[in-house]
Amino acid sequence: MNAPSNIPTRTCRDTPVLKERGQREVFCGLTGIIWLHRKMQDAFFLVVGSRTCAHLLQSAAGVMIFAEPRFGTAILEEGDLAGMQDAHEELDREVERLLSRRPDIRQLFLVGSCPSEVIKLDLARAAERLTVKHAPHVRVLNYSGSGIETTFTQGEDACLEAMVPVLPETGARELLLVGALPDVVEDQAVDLLTEMGVGPIRVLPAARASGTPAVGPETRYALFQPFLGDTAAALDRRGAQRIEAPFPFGEEGTTLWLKAIADEFGVDDETFERVTAAPRARARTAIANAAESLRGKSVFFFPDSQLEIPLARFLTRECGMEAVEIGAPFIHKGIVGADLDLLSEGPTISEGQDVDKQLDRCRAARPDITVCGLGLANPLEAEGLTTKWAIELVFTPVHFYDQAGDLAGLFSRPLRRRGLLKVEAGA
Amino acid sequence: MKLTVWTYEGPPHVGAMRVATGMKGLHYVLHAPQGDTYADLLFTMIERRNHRPPVTYTTFQARDLGADTAHLFKDACLDAYERFKPEAIIVGASCTAELIQDDPGGLAETMGLPVPVIPLELPSYSRKENYGCDETFFQIVRHLARPMEKTAQITCNILGPTGLGFRHRDDVEELTGLLSDLGVGVNVVAPMGATPTDITRLGQAHFNVLLYPETAEAAARWLKRELGMPYTTTVPIGVGATWDFIGEVRAITGLTGAVDDSRLRLPWWSKSVDSTYLTGKRVFLFGDATHVKAAARIARDEMGFEVVGLGCYNREFARDIRALGKEFGLTALVTEDYLEVEKAIEDAAPEMILGTQMERHIGKRLGIPCAVISAPVHVQDFPARYSPQVGFEGANVIFDTWIHPLVMGLEEHLLMMFREDFEFHDAAGPSHHGGHAPRALGEAEPQPVAEVAPEAEVAEAPAQTGSDVMVWLADAEKELKKIPFFVRGKARRNTEAYAAERGLNEISKDTLYEAKAHYAR
Ligand code: SF4
Ligand code: SF4
User: Fold this and answer.
1) B378 CA distance to ligand 1 centroid (A)?
2) What's the predicted TM-score (pTM) here?
3) What residues in B contact A90, CB-CB < 8 Å?
4) Which of A269, A402, B7, B377 could serve as B381's disulfide partner, Cβ 3.0–4.6 Å?
5) Which ipTM did the prediction report?
């Protein structure tokens, strides 16, 4: 009853991937700090980088509501580039200063950037040294969010991956949910699963260091987000087992995702039905409302967050859209395989980017809606295309049943707006 | 190493982008990793540009590092030339590429491209955005401008406007009109709107108007030295500065025609009785040096404000701003540290901030109204309507913009008279500001809807400070509450200063009124 209906015979799993290697128009992994620092409430993210890194964070954050957010950039200066010893001493001093000013900080992430990688500043060593120095009050970890190694959401992956090896060991059979989602959606998932009798449930990352989950061979985990491949691999190395499923976008995705977990934890069909029936119905109604303006429309994805394949699955199967091109920065078939299996053959699947060539393809296809980054949206609108900024899909609660309508709405609003406006001469 | 939370200026290659994006027919090939492409959104989102900035990024990755990033650069250069067919190319490195030392300039030169290739050396680890603008524009001018026969009519070039500049679009329009009144034609506006070909004919003009020293001073100096072109030194922002500028142009050109100042309204608006309430309003100024300098003069001489603090973030102009501080009897703040600026504003407790979009945030947090006078700016600082800062219309715009955040004259009286009336409670704020009532110190920020886990941050809002050494007795505290919120900060500060001078550490109701009498003007 909860198996997906109308599984296509030839799916995107079989489609050869168009691999592109040219100019990319994407954020680097540092960007993830913008949402990670809100999620982990006693963590501080210290980027060791350049003025460019600081400026990126500021520009991507858009809002600067707090005088001192829980992130900052230790900007390398000419002196630091000269001798390594100096840079480590300087870093220790900055960390010392920071931690004395912010006694609320329990976890400190040293985040590597392109400049720190290129000068081979060993942040792993720095993290070890600083952990010893500031134990037990603060734990210091490191990961790289550099643009030469990570693309946008891969920053979150790198951050969570860095946390896995130091998670405590457990032999308990527990469900671990992985990914930094807004609390409101995380709570919805936990509530639904709890109602089915699944438990105990832990979440990585926890809101506070004290809530850090444990992991072990009996751990079963499910990913909230498709971009967490390296975190998954790290959890596998700890003996945990992944529950494979399509990602929880839309009514179908959410149901399949929950069902896979329910099956793993021996929830019977009747219970599953009882718990999910009402929210499923709500989700369907909400999607139907928004989908009216989406049906039969075409969509083109520029690579951005790795959410593209699951979202294309949602838009084509639940909103009646047609995908022209689905571009993703990386395609990890082991992770998005279940979504690819549900996508009918047809769209071009591209990995990587050569932005000018992709723009040519997009202009030729003239899709009804183009999902792209902030640098491309207005220029494409000016050419008469309708766009949706991809970054909003990462910053807005869009997972699970009660956000399924909002998710469809993110795509239908630009189309509706275009229909509403009468601003041309003589209109 | 310096810990930075928010920055006033981006890296120098963003300055180069501002020049390239302002110009036409120029392309910038930037050796940089993929993440640096974020800079495009500054132009397409904040400035709402309908074109991508003319920048090709090489977006090299870690796996390219050992191999051949130089090759990658050459390919990108060639592709960019083929695709965009620019009249000239500028090439350079971002902070990361600077470290791998591929020498983009040298590489591009060996490629034999059929257009001028201008190499940029922008030291990312010591300089910043404004320097990047200034140096890039200077290099372009130095490579392309040549001596030329002067135009028959007296003309000038307008130097300085770039992409992402504060009101550059409208300033150019207003200034062009003013110059035309004076009988001066405009030969070239650059960088904004100019092609590389236009740059070659800068020398046709009789002189240069240096509109924004931050972005074009090096070019103006070079043109003076090499092509003998004088340039104006007054930036015509404000009434007095505009007249000074007119005087300067007349002195350079010998023209004496009258200018039509019938549109200039600031002087009468400022003299009219409703503006009496502006007298002695305590303002704090922070921004780029040029705009702060102009704003200081306007604030004191044209609005009748009291400047209680001033500073700039661009160290290149530190000397000017320190001198200006002296003139105002203040110690100027020259810093790039946002937290330091916030602290200084909190200490000065002004009634209004004239700053950048960063100070707007400080103002929101401290509950102090703020008007924006300088870059860095945000999307709302690119208005659809015409709103220059320079010239006569600029002065009118400034008058309106500065008084907008304040409580109006008559309204201020009503609030005084009916201060016990519940409808006029503090939080009501200026009546023309819907939901934007200034908040009191220490009150929590409203949370944005899409934020994750907002509660945790509330505690980070700065606590009330300033009165920790002085004890306010209950009756005095109660009396203070009766004073309308927009003057309460001043009253508290004055009273404390008065008490401190007299070595009192308790403040009674009497102290409050003695201080009031003491400071009465
Ligand atoms: S709060 Fe205002 S100034 Fe600050 S980022 Fe948002 S829109 Fe811009
Ligand atoms: S791409 Fe590299 S240099 Fe650029 S902002 Fe990201 S980490 Fe910093």
Assistant:
1) 7
2) 0.89
3) 1
4) B377
5) 0.93
